[in-house]
Amino acid sequence: MTINHHPPEDLLASFAAGALDAAERLVVAVHVAGCAGCGRFVQAMEQLAGAALEDAAPAPLAAGAFDAVMARIREAPAEAVRPLPPRAIADHPELPAILRRCQIGKRRRVAPGVSMQPIELSGGGRARAFLLQSAAGTRMLEHSHTGTELTCVLKGSFSHQGGRYGPGDFDYGDDDVDHRPIVGDEGPCLCLVAMTGDLRMNGFFGRLISPFIRL
Amino acid sequence: MPEIRRAIVADKRPKAKVEWADLIGRVASRGDREAFKSLFEHFAPRIKGFMLKTGCSADEAEEIAQEALIAVWRKAGQFDPATTGVAAWIYTIARNLRIDAVRKSVRRGGSSQAPDLVDTADPADTADVVISRVEDASRVKAAIERLSMEQSSVIRLSFIEERPHPEIADLLGIPLGTVKSRIRLAMNRLRDLLDEQQ
User: Fold this and answer.
1) What is the pLDDT, as a whole number, of residue A96?
2) Residue B131 is part of a domain; what is its CATH number?
3) In this complex, which of B107, B115, B140 lies closest to A47 when CB atoms are compared?
4) Residue B194, domain extent
């Protein structure tokens, strides 16, 4: 798998600092898990953060904190093993490990050849995460965003003026982007998407159907 | 062992990570309470201080610091000194706890579990994977060492400590108008350093 498109560095840095909201964090995490270069960048940020932690001004803990911690260590049961949510596996046996641990909602058709499945994340961030599946050769409607759209390709490919995006590639769209992705002919394309704001459909047909597409 | 003690008592400057790694090793291998206490006394107040500085309330910061040390005890066996530094490892534990705390406060008692996004080493990792983890770690270390002081400071201040640009300009004594470009340059330099050492 050759990855040609990566998240911008500041997004990776915010990811390493734990500053992204849940949906954005998920998409970046999936890319990073498959991309050695971005993995090293995140590690570098974490090492710098470790140095910052070493230099942080110590704030005294509450009286008796150490004994309280020892008591909690003795009492608390070991961490529970998380059962895998069944739907994720049934629908997409090939999902990366991180996504297999997510709760994935029901699949819903949003347009001809296009369906989506919401990913249920707690944490109430600004962004929503979902899997977007499009049939081979689908020409997506020309659209722009009111917020940002982070995409990681899981399977298949799509192209727009930024190039071709295959498995592992990361696409960052902000509100300036006005694009018309076309799904590759080799097979259906499965993407993980985190979106803030709304999609704006351009053109007559887009405006006609946009009330029905609540991504 | 007496050396370790002295280093801990002398405090002030960061200790060589080998020593902290030793203490974690003792916690992992025999549940060494004294070793754990040294780790607690050094890191818990720094975690609390760090969390306060980055916007947590005093209660949240205290709770994250305590929970982080509980996790250090529990996960001590997973710590691998060949792939990360102790402070960075503890940072990632505390960071993930803060992410969880935010999530819980939003859901107010909701029990839904969020996916663990941290790519922890799997005991079943193949030798190749282990070797590449170690190689990655040494590349990362070499790249950080080659960053200039100003470059690592500007990255730390803006992304890790999340300070506003005017404050960064103040702290580094540079014009506000150049903060953004310094950050960008530092990030590009880090990326180049990481990429060039093939």
Assistant:
1) 87
2) 1.10.10.10
3) B140
4) 122-198
